[in-house]
Amino acid sequence: MATEGTSAPAVALTAQADGQAVVAHANAPAPAPADTPQLTPAQLKAKAKAEKAARRAKVKEDKEVVAAAAQSQAADAKSGKGKGRDGAQTSGPQGPGKVGLTHRPSMSGRRPSILIVEKDIRSSIPECFSHLPMAKRIPLSQVHKDVHPAVLSIGQQMSTFAIKDSISRLEATLKAFRKVIESYETPKGNSLSRHFVPHALNPQIEYLTECRPMCFSMGNAIRLLKAKVNSFDIDTPEDEAKEGLLEMIELFINERITLAEFVIARNAAKQIQDGDLVLTYGSHRLVEKTFLRARGDGRSFSVSIIDDPYDRGGQVMATTLRKAGIRVFYSPNLGGLKTHVERATNVILGAEAIFANGSLHAAAGTADIAVAATAASKKVIALCETINFDRERVSVDALTYNEIDPEQNSAESFRLLYDTTRDHYITGVITEFETGSGNSPAQAILALLRKQEDPALN
């Protein structure tokens, strides 16, 4: 964090023996005086904002320094220079994303405290796609000191896609927040309702967002959690407030995740009849549970899986379904899509989220399936929990809200993780709400949300 004052901390460039670019900061922040007066909540909030702005400025400064060094190195390489100052060999790039710089040994033979900096892997993305976020691993040395170890762990797993789908990320986040609440202690002179969110919860959210863009369900759940915290009176005892938050999280997981999954699978299974050939795309937890539930109910049917050629999750689901006694036809990509669609009785697709205008946000390739099925007059059913509904944002294309796949990003090309399917290509959406057959039009999303939020409408 940059120290207060009129002069910026001195910055020096050096390099490791393996050619990585490093930035050394000569000045360290001065310790706070022992007699610092107690700050009010407003002053603490203003101080936190100032510290956050200072950290961002520091990161931006480091990136500019490294970018300038990279340009200098590229110019030297183009002109054929192979030696650094004092005859030292200039190190070249040490792999994807690394920047090599000249290292001049210090007189004492010791290196200063250093911070390894990597070249921005987004540098090859065209400017017109620069607004799209991408998951990245955050070095532990750059993590805020207030990030809880449980949150730190799931953040790393999200950045590497070990925890991938939206509901799994939501459940892992809520369980980590439960540990944050259990270990939280309100400082003397503060109240939980005023101190917890800005000083304990927000650092966790910021870290998770830096690791990977927040999914729709996480955003909705966090808004509900903050609303619960703000509902506490300033005089509410800490133990009582913490107990209320823990109960809310437990109830949320049971009702909005576990029970919702059970109800959606049960309702969707009713859409499958004996002799049907159901087409699906890739692998989705709700779709898999629907097929297993229909098989458990005694129905005899077949499943045609068109897999995502990059993810290959359909292979795992195909193995699971075959073990359950379901006949499976597997296609590794979208080749022959028209033929597969024409053979199918109906189509069941999993969704990551649904926008306020009824558009479906799902794995890249889902829109192709839905469009082809609609052209062939096949029924297209989407499965989605209401916690994944977005009541404010609308989308008509895949370029407004999306993510760039970090594993499929190179200087020549990159891949988007999701696509958007317009509502007129979706016959109906099945949620955990009991609406007759459980199959509601995609355009009814706002009515579903109003019913969810207002118990009087139930």
Structure notes:
There is one protein chain. This protein has 458 residues and is an alpha/beta fold. Among the domains are: 9-24 and 87-119, no CATH class; 264-457, Rossmann fold, CATH 3.40.50.10470. It contains eleven helices and 13 strands. The protein has helices spanning 41-78, 149-159, 166-183, 192-211, 216-230, 238-269, 285-296, 313-323, 337-343, 366-375, 445-453; strands at residues 11-15, 21-25, 115-116, 277-281, 302-306, 327-331, 346-350, 353-354, 360-363, 379-383, 418-421, 428-430, 439-440. The strands form three sheets. The protein has a seven-stranded mixed β-sheet with strand order 6-5-4-7-10-12-13, sandwiched between helices. Helix 2 packs parallel to helix 4. The longest helix has 38 residues, at 41-78. The two termini are 51 Å apart. The model is unreliable at 1-34 and 81-117 (pLDDT under 50). GO terms for molecular function: translation initiation factor activity. It is found in: Cytoplasm, Cytosol. It comes from Immersiella caudata.
What key attributes describe this structure?
IF-2B-related; 11 helices; alpha/beta; 40% helix; three-stranded antiparallel beta sheet; Rossmann fold; translation initiation factor activity; globular; 458 residues
Computed Rg: 26 Å
Major β-sheet strand ordering: 6-5-4-7-10-12-13
Could you tell me the CATH topology label of the domain at 264-457: Rossmann fold
According to CATH, the homologous superfamily of the domain at 264-457 is Translation initiation factor eif-2b, domain 2
How many helix segments? 11
CATH architecture of the domain at 264-457: 3-Layer(aba) Sandwich
CATH class category of the domain at 264-457: Alpha Beta
How much is the average pLDDT? 81
The secondary structure category is alpha/beta
Q: Report the β-strand fraction as a percent range.
A: 5-15%
- Low-confidence segments: 1-34, 81-117
Number of strands: 13
Sketch the major β-sheet: 7 strands, mixed
Helix content: 25-40%
